[in-house]
Specification:
The protein has 257 residues and is α/β, with parallel strands linked by helices. The chain has one domain: 3-Layer(aba) Sandwich (Rossmann fold). The chain has eight helices and seven strands. The chain has a seven-stranded parallel sheet with strand order 3-2-1-4-5-6-7, with helices on both faces. Helix 4 links the parallel strand 4 and strand 5. It holds the Pfam family adh_short_C2.
């Protein structure tokens, strides 16, 4: 039987891989045989994630400390990965932040910080990985984690810098897909809706958000752990070889309405 999603021997670099969806996607890729680079700022967290992945999935995994807003450090981090593994086949640009406040009260610093991390940081990592690893190899799978809020606005939680940055990620995905297709590099994004994580569970289970789910989401619930995994595995795998420049909502239908 053909395993369309076999990633054995491949190397996946996941940013923001110290908690939440980043760790979930790293584990999903490891479950298909990929070796993992957990990249984030908190050294003890990423080392623990790498150790857990090694023990659970039997693949190689390392933690690499990096602030994605620091261009020099991003370039050095990619070199470190190449020194260890010799290749980077898959990049999941997951690191991000989110300022929540009414638009009229958002500060210049909040807006700039959001753009610097979510949009410019994603570009810096993609640029370094493509230049050092994927373009020379004539192969790559880049998955940018945007958001359904990169596609639409919202009324329940003012977060205009987040919408702007993730909207930028959506079109950056199209731009990089167009430029790097000639190198056999595909660039796609996943646009998640609300998902349960350690940080969101209390908020999403509140009466207000539960009612919001029934009103705004066709499936009438929020995303559970694991429901992002199949999208990440598909876009990371050889099976998605003719899919590029796509922004895939995984949002229970939120953006369909």
């Amino acid at each position: 039987m053909t395993n369309y999603f076999d990633l054995k021997g491949q190397v996946a670099l996941v940013t923001g891989c110290s908690a939440g969806l980043g760790v979930q996607m790293a584990k999903a890729l490891a479950s298909q045989g990929a070796n993992i680079v957990a990249l984030a700022r908190r050294k003890e967290r990423i080392d623990a994630v790498a150790e857990e992945i090694k023990k659970t999935y039997g693949v190689d995994a390392i933690g690499v400390q990096c602030d994605i807003t620091d261009t020099d450090r991003v370039n050095e981090a990619v070199k470190e990965v190449l020194n260890h593994f010799g290749r980077i086949d898959i990049l999941v640009n997951n690191a991000g932040t989110g300022a929540v406040a009414p638009a009229e009260d958002i500060t210049d610093e909040q807006f700039a910080n959001e753009m610097n991390i979510d949009l410019f940081g994603s570009f810096k990592v993609a640029r370094a990985v493509a230049k050092q690893a994927m373009i020379p190899a004539k192969y790559g799978r880049i998955i940018n984690i945007a958001s359904m809020y990169g596609l639409v606005g919202n009324k329940i939680a003012g977060s205009s810098p987040y919408h702007a940055a993730k909207g930028g990620v959506v079109n950056l995905t199209r731009a990089l897909a167009s430029e790097w297709g000639k190198y056999n590099i595909t660039v796609n994004s996943i646009c998640p809706g609300y998902f349960y994580t350690d940080l969101t569970v209390d908020t999403l289970n509140s009466d207000f958000f539960q009612q919001n789910a029934k009103t705004m989401i066709p499936l009438e619930r929020y995303g559970n752990e694991g429901e992002l995994d199949s999208a990440a595995i598909f876009l990371a795998s050889p099976a998605s070889s003719y899919v590029t420049g796509v922004n895939l909502p995984v949002d229970g239908g939120y953006t369909a309405m």
